[in-house]
């Protein structure tokens, strides 16, 4: 199974011999890859929609893995019992939906050794929520696909303290990301804020002064991080 750079980076965070749930499995590529590479003996793949469940079953059948990958229809981890898994992947969804899936199955999430998140948006809100609810981001990674950069977050139960607000945005534990990749990621964020600022200034009124100063502050903080790399 050939995975895209995003899916590969997610799979790389799975520890050998894990029993993992792939929540929102859709195509089922990650479970097949994990079994094929002998990273996992067993995977539970779940999805809330019947179409993705059928897609995943087809991928699994085509790869002769029906004995190793169990596919279940249902929301989040609601169709899984606590002792069945030791880890989970929740990827390719909005950060707020990921947060809601964690809340929905908090007791099973809290029983896991680790879980892997890949939010498509609302990364800031998700990191803030994780910190507030005593989850610890142990490692993060970036995946580059076309002009998109995806953030992958590995989490364990436990406290973390984020000392600089900008880390909610640029990650708290990118220790294995190359300096070059991290710089590209941060520069992209700076450019995003410069564009927002330019658009606001085009239609500027005095009401926008506060917004501009907040954007300037973000740009400055991101620039400071770049200088320290
Ligand atoms: C964009 S796909 C991502 C698929 C795959 N995880 C990936 O990263 O490529 C999102 C999948 O999540 C599923 N989904 C959305 N809400 C869900 C929920 N509450 N529980 C389980 N699956 C959900 C959707 O049906 C869809 O198949």
Automatic annotation (TrEMBL):
GO terms for biological process: methylation. InterPro entries: SAM-dependent_MTases_sf (IPR029063), TrmK (IPR006901). One of its GO terms (molecular function) is tRNA (adenine(22)-N1)-methyltransferase activity. Keywords: Methyltransferase, Transferase. Pfam families: Methyltransf_18. This is Class I SAM-dependent methyltransferase.
């Amino acid at each position: 199974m050939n995975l895209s750079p995003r899916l590969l980076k997610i799979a790389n965070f799975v520890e050998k011999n894990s029993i993992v749930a792939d929540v929102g499995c859709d195509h089922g590529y990650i479970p097949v890859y994990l079994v094929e590479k002998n990273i996992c003996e067993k995977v539970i793949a779940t999805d809330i929609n019947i179409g993705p469940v059928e897609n995943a079953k087809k991928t699994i059948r085509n790869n002769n893995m029906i004995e190793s990958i169990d596919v279940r229809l249902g929301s989040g981890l609601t169709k899984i019992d606590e002792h069945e898994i030791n880890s989970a992947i929740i990827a390719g969804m909005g950060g707020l939906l990921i947060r809601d899936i964690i809340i929905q199955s908090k007791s099973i999430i809290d029983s896991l050794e680790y879980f892997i998140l890949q939010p498509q948006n609302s990364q800031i809100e998700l990191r803030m929520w994780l910190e507030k609810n005593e989850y610890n981001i142990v490692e993060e990674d970036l995946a580059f696909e076309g002009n998109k950069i995806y953030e992958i977050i590995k989490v364990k139960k436990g406290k973390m303290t984020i000392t600089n607000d900008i880390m909610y945005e640029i990650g708290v534990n990118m220790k294995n990301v190359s300096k070059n990749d991290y710089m590209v990621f941060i520069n992209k964020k700076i450019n995003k804020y410069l564009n927002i600022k330019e658009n606001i200034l085009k239609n500027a009124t005095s009401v926008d002064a506060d917004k501009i100063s907040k954007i300037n502050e973000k740009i400055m903080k991101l620039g400071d991080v770049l200088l320290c790399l």
